[in-house]
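Re: the 234-residue chain
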Amino acid sequence: MKNQKHVWIFGYNKQSRSIAASLLSENFSVTIIENDNKNFQDALSGGYLNSILIDITEDTELEKLDIKQNDWILCMMEDEYLNVFLTLSLSASCTCNQIIAISHSIYSTQKLKMAGANQVIDVYQVSANRIHNIFEKPIATKLLDNFISATHEISFQEFVISKNSSLNGIIIDDVDFGKFDIIFTGMVDKELGDEFIFAASNINHKLDDGDIIICIGKNEDLAKFSKYLYKDIT
C-alpha cells in the first residue's frame, strides 16, 4: 500500500503487542525495536519478522534506523527511565515525527512531556476514564459487577483518609497509584460535600482527614496500598 502509515514501536511487551496487533488490523505497517534479546526473540516468534535488536542507549544505533518524516514513533519501554531517555534521544533526532509515549505514573508523564513527546498516554488515566464511562452506563456497570464477582481477584475498595494516614495533606495528583498497580477511580472530598468525583474530572484536591478515595485493582495490591496508607509499611 503506497500511502500506508508506518509505525515504529520501541519495546515488545504485553501492551505493545496489543497495540501492534491493533495497528496491523488497521493496515498500518509496524517495526518493533528492542534492546533485550529475549523480547526480540519473542517479537520474532510473534510474527514480527522485521523486528530489530539494537542498543537504544546509543544515539548512533538510533540514527541508523530508516525512520521517515511521516512515520509515527511509539515509545513503550517497560523501564521508565529507559523510556524517558529514548524519548529524549528521538525527539532530538526525529524533529518532524509524531512521538507518542506510554506512561505508568504522573511522574513519568511529566518527564516524558519534558523529554519532547508530542503525546503522552497515561495508562492509569485511560483506565480511570473508561471506568467513568462504565459508571455512566448502568447496564455496563452491572456487567462490570458480574465480572468482578466472577474473577474474585479484582475489586473496588474505598479508603478513608485518617489523621494519621500517609496521604493526609497530600495533593491527589501527587499520589503515585501506579506504584501499587492499582487505579484511582475517584473520591469524596468532605469539604465539597458527599458527591462522588470521578478521576476523569481532573481532580486536584488536597486529601484531608475524612476524605474517601476509591480504587480498583487486584485484592493483593489493594491490601498493600491499605498497609501503606495506614503506615504499616513504607
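The helical segments are 14-25, 37-45, 59-63, 80-93, 106-115, 123-135, 138-151, 219-229.
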